[in-house]
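[Automated response] Your request has been received and processed.

Submitted sequence:
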Amino acid sequence: MKNNNEIYENTADKNENIFNQIKNLRREVDYNTRDYAIDFLVAKFKAEEFFINYDYQRQFVWDNQRKCQFIESILLGYPIPFMFFSENDDGRCDIVDGAQRTSTLEKFLSNDLVLSNLKKLTELNGLTFNQLPPPIQRKFNTTTLRVIALEEGTSLDVRQEIFNRINTSAMPLNTTETRRGAYAGKFMDFMKICAEKPLFRKLCPISENNKKRFEDIELITRFFAYVNNYQAFEHEVADFLDNFVESHKNEFDRNAFETEFDAMLNFVEKYFPKGFRRNATGKFVPRAGFEAISVGVALALREKADLIPAIATNWTDIASPEGERFKFHTITYASNSKNRIVSRLEYVKNMLLYGEER
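Generated structure:
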């Protein structure tokens, strides 16, 4: 049995380890707090002295309702969450968090936003900024918003982490947007290039709204993660993809990845008349269907580079009797369980190689 001195020594060692770990991993971030009047903030934004860094920011996605609610909140004097800026060595400021609010303010002061569906200030519905009474315009312009300004020298990595951890906007980040901010690097840049390939865009049409939320990047991430490591998948898709992207952030065989991606697209164009679409004329590409076809094709091509499908690919048509098994694998419940993911990828691979499910 340990005596009190042994217990104390162990506790002291543990405490020292804790202190050292915090000291070694803590990132020193120097900052100050500033209050900017709205008209000053917008003027700086128009002059691009305050700018949005799209290397890790999501694109503007607030709908009109959210914009109007934000303006109404300011007019009512409601507290507005802090924004985060970061000073650059060229004297400009990167808007780390607050891009959508700043863009909305610029739009409103430029009379490009018509207030609508306001629940409290109903008299303002249908008005632009210039149509407000002059005293209200002046008060709005001189309203100050508080900004946490990170000092010059704050690294891009730190800004990315702050963007990932602190989300004060009304619409939460989806997992793809968070991943872009947290793991920005050469691999993420490469996936952007893949998303712009004309053949990918032809075979995998994605609506403009979904592009703004990076659905194309999500699909491509799933392709590379599953084709290279699907057997290691356990429970959570988001965690699985995060781990894959993080481990390939700046180190991966770009030539091999791109060659396999292009070969997969060429094969799909040649043998799958609908591409990745659910139907021939649709613009909806279901994730499970995309995974099954893209990864299944790539796995089959790894086994036989000059592959010609064993049978016609009408078994992917979920509207026909031949497509019942494909429908089962890609549409029914538990589509993201490990068994279902493995089975749908290998179903497509085996149908291409052998013309039957194995």
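Summary generated for your ticket: The first strand starts at residue 31 and ends at 37. The CA atoms of residues 282 and 329 lie 20 Å apart.
If you did not submit this request, please reply to this message.
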